[in-house]
Batch of 4 targets.
Target 1
Amino acid sequence: MSFDKIKGNQKLINSFKDLLKDGSFPSCSLFYGQRGIGKFMTAFEIAKAHFCTQTAGEDALFGESRDESRPCDKCPDCTRAEKRLHPDFRVVDASFQAALLDEPVEKQRALKIDSLREIARFAYEKPYISKHKLIIIDQAETMTVEAQNSLLKILEEPPESAKIILVSNDKNLLLPTIVSRASPFRFLPLENQDLAEILGNFSIEYSQAQFLADISGGSVAKALEFASILKEVKSKRHLGKLLAFSMLPPRSQAYEQRAKTALVLDFLISVTAAGKINPPLSFSQKAAEVNRLLSYSSWLKHNVSPRVIMQLALNDYLKFGDFAFGEKI
Ligand SMILES: [Zn+2]
């Protein structure tokens, strides 16, 4: 992978490379910004660069030391870190917690104190093979208050040989005492062109990638979710009024039903606001439609049935026409 393949936020990435080169990467940093813009990926490459032990190919012949600022992606340490098997590396996320608690991954919606206790134990032990341990806490904003307090204790007595990277989609959900102890790095949304190119790597054809880039606010995660909704709507469109029902998960999965409905509403709002409907809506039609969809979003928060909302939201779109891909159609 290496930093070269990460799109967007190049200034920030260059400053990380400088910090790695100087060996002055902060002991606790906070990568924040909306989801799906490369925060975790960047943190992961930093971890690999941190553990990489390769003396880089040709440079080694001339007795030069390796470039500390990038992972070689070939040495055993890069490989171990890549597979999350490096003994001095931990990624705290839903999978980590699921393994720790021996529970299904999909049940891990919050990072609990158990995970942070485990990380505290890990952080204060001496590194096994590297100079420093490295801990990435992904979606740090999902930590419960107890978990955050447990993290705070670690930050108040920083372990000598562990570095922590907090990755967060919403730093306002973190305790101010945590935020103030971390070096902040703000990631920006991706440019549309960069986003469209990334979507191309997921086998999404060009005009559709452009369309998704225009409606996804610079987030790869959002664009990929929208791609799946678009595919589903197009393949089930012939069902007419049954479309809404066919898109909902079973009634027993209440959480998933709400999440799917919220995603469909987000998709429809983004498509409408960006004017990507064929035939085009007039300005007043567009404004009325966005307002209507926004009120459905608020109904969803007030426990109105997702089945009702999904049906109301989608039925109008069947009347409107089709989603416009780029400028070509
Ligand atoms: Zn390496």
Note: Residues 52, 54, 71-72, 74-75, 77-78 surround zinc ion (CB under 6 Å).
Target 2
Amino acid sequence: MVDSPERKDPMGYYARLGVPSTATAERIKLAFRQQAKHVHPDHNTGAGAKDAFQRLNEAYQVLSDPVTRAQYDARAQELPPAPASPSSSGPAPSPSGGGAAAGRTRSSRAARPSPGASPGAADKSVAAIACSGCGTVTAQPRYVTYWRVISYGIGTRRQPVQGVFCRSCADRRGLKASLTTWALGWWGVPWGPYWTVKALWQNLKGGEKPGDLNAALLRQQALYFLGASKPALARSALDQAIRLVERPEMRQKLEKMRILLGAGGRESPPDRWRPLASWAFYLHVLLIVGGAVGAWTVVDQLALIAGQALIAASQAPALPPGPALPPPPSRLAATVPSSPPVPAPPPSILWHVSTGTLVLRDGPGAAHAAVGRLYQSDTVELLARIDGWARIKTAGGQTGFVAQQFLAAGAGTDDE
Ligand SMILES: [Zn+2]
């Protein structure tokens, strides 16, 4: 591992700003502003202030530009062996170096117009751009920004996950950002869901890859490959840069440079950054679809539980408020036919016949066959009521139907 702080920070630039080497661009900017407040000559007339500000500014100029920062990081990776700089080699065109045409502008540390001091010593022509994740120098590095969203109730924070990555490292970081977002992004009012969906969508698409910035990065890598006598890789990097570039004048420069390099011996390698070329895309889709299904299931279940709770709550007060009645025997409940619901529970299950004689029938209606006969004040057990008819059970245990109008509530006086 190459993770000791000194190795990651050979010139101490990160240390000057007080940030880790994994800091996001935003954090670096913030750190610079905070420190500049204290040492800027406008605010601080102290003796060492000017010098301190210059040192701070030097670090910031390198680290605030993704390309120079990537070179600085790459230099950190390859520091220990301190490879001898190739003293002379093939043509290294340097468009911004003035004499572009096949000139041997070897030590072109100004290969790209750097706003400030170029990082480190100028003993190497152009530093390689390495993946900030694994340190590999690949032919297709990209500057990528993924988004991670974390919510905490009443707030939501969006954090960029960015850097110069190889495809594998980029995929891993993108997925990790999406997983975190999936788990923690939603739960913020009111913007959590919005930012979560947006971040997942951006990450699914492979993150943000600003065109001009990546073109500059690849051009830089092409120059490095040229210096390392790998013209095929240089051509490939330039081809990618031309594909990505947005500014017309920059495109012209790149195309001129590409012509100088001549035709390649072999085809460019396939674009490793096509969205569909990676397992990460499919995992993302799986994550989003699976997550959506999972979330829907959870919501569905919660709604069901909430619905049941509501029903239970609304039924609870409907229980007999007065003096408790004896609960009906469960046998009765079981024998209630599935029929229009009883409008109101009977005050008592014991009724009596209020007319001289009453025909007991085998169904609810006068057309049904008579199965018995009841007399005034006979006590019956009311089982159910159906359309003006009552299903009853006599003291003798016989069941049948009688017209309900001939029943009165309460047990009869004649219990015979
Ligand atoms: Zn990597």
Note: Residues 330-409 form a domain with the SH3 type barrels. fold (CATH 2.30.30.40).
Target 3
Amino acid sequence: MSHQITLHHLNVSRSDRLFWLLEETKLPYNVKVHFRLPTRQAPPSLHAVSPLGRAPTLELDGKTLTESAFIIHQILSLPEVIKGAEDGSLDIQVEETEDGVFWSHFAEGSMMNLFQASAIIGATGQGWKIGAVGGLDEAGKEAVGKYSQWLTEGYLRPQIQGTIDLAESFLTKQGKQWFSGTDKPGEGDFMMFFAINSLLAGSRKDSGFNVGPGLKGWYERVLARPAAKKGLERLKQEEESAKSKI
Ligand SMILES: N[C@@H](CCC(=O)N[C@@H](CS)C(=O)NCC(=O)O)C(=O)O
């Protein structure tokens, strides 16, 4: 059965996980690009298709799916994807593994929540500090600046580094190639991709976190895969083509 798939992508977002996954599955898909507002929030067009206005959102045969982990789970459960993995035409871990489920939950539940908190405090703290919001006097602005600096640097940074170190030690100390724990990438790998990509090549590249050789090697293995290359290229092309129509 051929499926009708539309990926709703927001620039600089977790939907990079799905570009990689969809290319690995060889399923054809359409892309609708949504651009963030100057406040960095999702635009009304994404709210129109997604209950919380979040990306990724995927339309699969008329059904609206949200939450990347759930979307990945649904795609990996499609009969043709299971069959492709069984007959060897797809080189991905489709059957759930203990490691794969763990890292899939870890990616959002322990890693991204901290990154997200830090990003929100950093951006909103700056807004209060420069007087764009809050209406504070100089002493108040200074206090907000000090508190947000302590939260992001003193409180959250060590916790975020701890999540990076745990992922590093899984790959190095346990000698694993993939977060699936097998010789193929699976749901844990697709889910971990957003954070690691942002640390090594994206918005967190210069944020001063220590990313070890295990994660760097994992990232190189991902990027060496034709499907990951194709997915990232498609993401770029879709954004460029949508931008040219604005
Ligand atoms: N847990 C969700 C998180 C989705 C999420 O927060 N997406 C961000 C982009 S990375 C978003 O849509 N932000 C827009 C906004 O907050 O307005 C998932 O894994 O899909």
Note: Residues 99 and 178 are 9 Å apart (CA to CA).
Target 4
Amino acid sequence: MEILELGPGVIVFLRLDEGANIGLLRTDDGAVVVDTPSYPQDMQELLDAVGVSVPEVQLVINTHFHSDHTWGNQLFDCPILAHRLCRERMKANLDGEWSAEAIQAEIAKEEKVDPDWAREAREKLANLYITLPTQVFEKRREIAIGGVRIQVIHMGGHTPGSSVVWLPEARVLFAGDLIFEGRYPYLHDADVPALIAALKRLPKFDAQTVVPGHGALCGEAEIAALVDYLETTWTLTADHLAQGHSEAETVADPNYPHYAEEPVGRREENIRLMYDQLSRMEKDSP
Ligand SMILES: [Zn+2]
């Protein structure tokens, strides 16, 4: 992990190998956290690393519902802000894929594939108490803490309730998982055309630094590369579908764009997800 200061009080925990990037803003009136890691204890360690105590944190913002951006919420008593759809999905997950039984089953499944990960997850999630956002918004929310403005703007795309966090003074944009830098994006909950549209809005911020949800700090070139990957994969998949090709035939096409194969299998997974979304769109169209 690397800890970088992007502007006065603007800190990013760049966790290339550990998980999602986490943001922290320090002001004279307290701190703001942007996303919390899967393991609450990791959140505590990040705060310790920069000498910020839990009570100093005045606000937590979740960019979207995925566990690697929200499960560390339990550390905080302060308000937690997210888009309405983010909160709704988290709430629904409590009785489904995030029930204690479902989480244990997921860990047990991984045990055979990655026993070290499973051991760590079992240990670090033993006292997990999934904590929902306490405040929601619709289109955007502007907050000022210690005289520093923070804008949270709904974008959708990666998930229906995905938001970005914009610090206009420092011109830093926390893009959440709208951006995976230098690696395949995770698209399980994504609407691909909406994601492409959201990504195309990002250059309008004219940010000095863009913090992706995963990967290294980036700018317009990396956003353009991601848009290119998504558009090329989407268009190629639509062509296959139009020609009546099966999913297996489509995935076998060697002409799809490549990132370095990381995470393993995601290239194929993303083609399948797009094939599925396009098939549903075709079925729904009159
Ligand atoms: Zn995500």
Note: The chain has a mean pLDDT of 96.
